[in-house]
Design a protein that fits this description.
This is Kinase. InterPro entries: P-loop_NTPase. The chain is an alpha/beta fold. It has a single domain, classed as P-loop containing nucleotide triphosphate hydrolases (Rossmann fold, 3-Layer(aba) Sandwich), CATH 3.40.50.300. The chain is about 45% helix and about 15% strand. The protein contains 10 helices and 9 strands.
Length: about 290
């Protein structure tokens, strides 16, 4: 049953044929483990966190888990930390009042964490007659989607998936915030104010959010150097699906600058999360899972 579902999923998502082997060897055992946990868990939704650098396949894995577990009768809420980004207007306020680099979405401090916590609370309490709106962010326009355009999920919910590039990570020690590690930090955050603010935000409201995670998965990139190529592929896919007025799309040069916002924390995730994640799937440069 699962095998056919995976094959259909690969065709639907236009994934390479090699994904079938990785899914069968690595993700099917995970699905069976989750099924066992869901059978035992009767105290509200089971929350899975999926961490991985940009382009590692977090959203694809989330969709696969959702499809397979939904086929077994489980109700799944699929969330991304990206969908809780502040609006473009709100980020402009942060840029004017705190630091210009906060105009760009992505780092801790650019999400509505209170909204994320509220949505999780709603999902935990939703009954058969209640619907929960799942926020959504349009990256092609770099702004939040209207509420009436967002998915409505009816309760009760068995499983919540929360994926994101820094989901589950703890803040850096303050003495590790300098020196600058790239041109963006050197030229646009020479005094380190932005780095300190981002780290403080991560140490604050995000930690209660991450503490709700029952199981943390990590898709471990071979290194940060691979992120530019994978993020560029993401942008190509987004461009193919976007409307003609998609002002939020980026060219190669813009992507190179954009990912520098993520470099410090991505490297921190690669160093620290393998020791704390419940499952780590190591990826090679071809997006294949390496089996030790």
């Amino acid at each position: 049953m699962y095998q056919q579902l995976i094959e259909d999923f690969i065709q639907q998502e236009r994934l390479p044929s090699t994904y079938l082997l990785d899914a069968t060897q690595c993700f099917l055992p995970l699905v069976r483990e989750l099924e066992a946990k869901l059978q035992k868990n009767r105290q509200g939704p089971f929350l899975i966190g999926i961490n991985g650098a940009q382009g590692t396949g977090k959203s694809t894995l989330a969709k696969l888990l959702s499809a397979l577990l939904t086929s077994r009768g489980h109700r799944v809420a699929n969330l991304s930390i990206d969908d809780f980004y502040y609006s473009k207007a709100k980020r402009q306020e942060l840029a004017a009042g705190i630091h210009p680099l906060l105009r760009s979405r992505g780092v801790p401090g650019t999400h509505d964490v209170d909204l994320a916590l509220h949505v999780l609370e709603q999902l935990a309490e939703a009954g058969p007659e209640q619907k929960v709106s799942l926020p959504s962010f349009d990256k092609s326009l770099d702004d939040c989607r209207a509420l009436d355009a967002c998915e409505q999920l009816r309760g009760p919910v068995d499983l919540v998936i929360l994926e994101g590039w820094f989901v589950g990570v703890k803040p850096q020690p303050e003495d590790k915030l300098s020196p600058a590690i790239n041109e963006l930090e050197s030229n646009e955050d020479s005094d380190g104010r932005w780095r300190v603010y981002v780290n403080q935000q991560l140490a604050g409201a995000y930690q209660p959010l991450f503490k709700q995670i029952h199981m943390l998965l990590m898709l471990q990139a071979p290194g940060f150097e691979q992120v530019l190529e994978w993020r560029s592929l993401q942008e190509e896919k987004l461009r193919a699906l976007a409307a003609k007025d998609a002002s939020g799309l980026m060219d190669r040069k813009a992507i190179e600058r954009f990912i520098q916002h993520f470099e410090r924390l991505t490297r921190h995730c690669l160093r620290t999360l393998p020791d704390s994640a419940d499952h780590v799937f190591q990826l090679d440069a071809d997006h294949r899972i390496t089996l030790s």
